[in-house]
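re: that chain from earlier
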Amino acid sequence: MQDELRTDEYRISISREIQVCKNMIERQLKDIARFEKEYGLATERLLAGELPQGGVDAARLKAWRDDQAGLLAWQQRLREYEEAYAALRR
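^ sequence. v structure.
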């Protein structure tokens, strides 16, 4: 019985973390889309070394790259939590 309760607590905690990850991913995607629209350049092209026409402020460029790095980190964290959640369901 005690192990069953503990497992339920783990599931609840992990499901909360999954939702946090999803919310952060959504936020990062919106921020990245805003940069792409503002500068008319896909993030993939930016990361490949292309700069927007007309230039971009160094701080904004760093923020854009940081958002992309953050997105990748949140996506990885989400995968890990989903794997942990799936393991608890077995």
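The mean pLDDT is 91.
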